[in-house]
Structure formats: C-alpha cells, structure tokens
Amino acid sequence: MEQSLKNPVQMAVIGAAHGIHGEVRVKTFTEDPLALGEYGPVKALDGRSFEILDIRPAGDMVVVRFKGVSDRNAAEALNGTALYVDRSALPDDTEEGEFYHADLIGLEIRGVSGEVIGKVTAVQNFGGGDLLEITHRNKKGVLIPFSEAAVPLVDVAGGFIAIDEMAAGLIDMEENGSPELSGSASETDRRPRGPKNAGENR
C-alpha cells in the first residue's frame, strides 16, 4: 500500500466508465480541469495511487486514462473514488483574500476581543456564496458567511480567524437558539478556493 497523505486535499472524484478501454469520466475541483494531470500521481485515501496517462475535456468533466486500468470492468470498479494530492503539492500563488479550503479547515476561531470561541470544521457553498461551517461556543454545524464583514481577519500562519459575531449573525443565534445569517455570503466575499490551478480544500 502506498504511503498515506499527511494533509490530503481532494482534487477530483471518479465517475462512470467511458467506453470499453478503461477510461473513466472524472469530476475535478480544479480551476482548470486539465490541471489534474500536472501534479504527479493522485491518490485515494486508502493509499492507492493513480498515474494519469491521458486526460481530455468532456463537457463539464474530463475523461481520464489511468495506468493499469485497461478495460471497462476495471474502470467501473473505480466509480466514486475520491482523488487527492498532498497540500504541499499545491502552489502558493493565491491572491490577497484567497485561501485554500484545506488551509481554513481546523483553524481556531477568535472573537474580536481575542477569546477563543470555536473552530472551522468545513467550507460549504450551496449556490449563494461560500460559507464557513464552524463550532461556536459548543454548538456544532453553525454556518456563517465568509465575508470581510463577518470574518475580518484570516491568519493561516497563526492558526486562527477572527469573526465579528454580530456581522456573522451569531448574536441572534445565541438569543433565539438558531442561526440567522446577516446578509448573503456574496456580499464582499473573501474567496476560499479548492485546489484551484492544481486542483479545492493558500
């Protein structure tokens, strides 16, 4: 079994078989779908490694031929397999206000006065803009907009973000028992990104 990744970032997920010669359709989470083939072998979380021999566009997906996958049965067996690279393989060419999902997940959350009040657990987007899923004062699964108003400071190197609980809609949550987002996440968004240019979660 191949060595597991220290800090895995999901790049893609394998879909259905394509044709009879072992090719598969793949949904990528990269800005440029064809960039999936630029970072060496991709891996599954169980340690399997996949070397890309050929990749070409196919609508909103790509068609990929992996080394050692030569027939439809072998291709079908890969359906649903998520593909990863280690965070260290991704470029640090992010623009100001732009972050990799993987670098945000796990960050400590501090209030504007500096007290620790939670942790980032995921980055979500349901079509209206990027949201941070957080634990907040022992409440799990809380969503806040990833905007400059709600999240005025992101310090990846320092391991934390600072949030304005009022702007994030968390004051209403504490009073009423449920979160009420103050404005859509699309207002003055920051830009968390997946493995862009390489592939989702600087």
From TrEMBL:
InterPro entries to which the protein is assigned, alphabetical: PRC_barrel-like_sf (IPR011033), PRC_RimM (IPR056792), RimM (IPR011961), RimM_N (IPR002676), RimM_N_sf (IPR036976), Transl_B-barrel_sf (IPR009000)
Claim: rRNA processing is one of the keywords in the record: yes
Membrane spanning stretches: none
Recorded family membership: Belongs to the RimM family.
Gene3D superfamilies cross-referenced by the UniProt entry: PRC-barrel domain (2.30.30.240), RimM (2.40.30.60)
Protein name: Ribosome maturation factor RimM
Described function: An accessory protein needed during the final step in the assembly of 30S ribosomal subunit, possibly for assembly of the head region. Essential for efficient processing of 16S rRNA. May be needed both before and after RbfA during the maturation of 16S rRNA. It has affinity for free ribosomal 30S subunits but not for 70S ribosomes.
Organism: Pseudaminobacter soli (ex Zhang et al. 2022)
Residue ranges of every copy of the RimM N-terminal domain listed in the record: 11-88
Biological process annotations from GO: ribosomal small subunit biogenesis; rRNA processing
Region (Disordered): 174-202
GO cellular component: cytoplasm; ribosome
Subunit structure: Binds ribosomal protein uS19.
Sorted UniProt keywords: Chaperone, Cytoplasm, Ribosome biogenesis, rRNA processing
SUPFAM superfamilies per UniProt: PRC-barrel domain (SSF50346), Translation proteins (SSF50447)
Compartments reported by the entry: Cytoplasm
Annotated Ribosome maturation factor RimM PRC barrel domain residues: 102-164
